[in-house]
Amino acid sequence: MDKRVFLRNTGYLNQRRPKATALGYDPERDEAPKVLASGEGLIAEQIIAVAKANGIPIREDPILAEALSKVDIGQAIPPELYPLVAEVLAYIYRLQGKTL
Fold first, then answer.
1. Has residue 76 been placed in a domain?
2. Contact partners, residue 22, CB within 8 Å, separation at least 6
3. What is the pTM of this model?
4. Residue 34 sits in which domain range?
5. I need a labelling partner for 46 at 20 to 30 A (CA). Which of 4, 53, 73, 96 fits?
6. For 30-68, what is each residue's pLDDT tens digit?
7. For residue 40, which of 18, 66, 22, 9 has the smallest C-alpha distance?
8. DSSP-derived secondary structure letter, 57
9. Helical ranges in 1-100 per DSSP H
10. Cα-trace Rg, the chain
11. Residue 84 included in any domain
């Protein structure tokens, strides 16, 4: 089952431009969640608009969004971010009324 979530960073560390990162994870295909999209400013706003239009959960997590913004699009998240991203995936499950 494919899981997607969008993380955003609005105003972290006095930034003027918001950042957003989209993650996707299919446990049957992927070894780890991947960055599907990432950007700041207008691109971040577009990423968030796509998430909203498609009913994809959005989570405000400035620190994680900042860390994920450094990962190339299409790449798996680095192992040091696994615990934080696991929390995000658990958040999605809770939103959907599922258990891990």
1. yes
2. 4, 5, 6, 7, 35, 36, 37, 38, 47, 50, 51, 56
3. 0.79
4. 3-95
5. 96
6. 999 999 999 988 998 899 999 999 988 888 888 898 899
7. 18
8. -
9. 42-53, 62-68, 82-95
10. 13
11. yes
Query: How do the residues of the chain divide into helix, strand and coil, expressed in percent and rounded to 5?
Result: 40, 25, 35
Residue 22 lies in a domain: yes
Backbone angles phi, psi at 84, to 5 degrees: -70, -40
Q: Does a structural domain hold residue 100? A: no
* Contacts of 67 by beta carbon, 8 Å cutoff, 6+ apart: 81, 84
Strands 19-25 and 3-9: antiparallel
Q: Distances from the Cα of 76 to the Cαs of 41, 69, 97, 99, in angstroms?
A: 23, 12, 26, 24
pLDDT at 82 over 80: yes
The pair phi, psi for residue 53, each rounded to 5°, is -65, -25
Domain count, the chain: 1
Q: Which residues pair with 5 in a beta bridge?
A: 23
Q: What is the pLDDT of residue 17?
A: 77
Q: What are the tokens at 67?
A: 């860390």
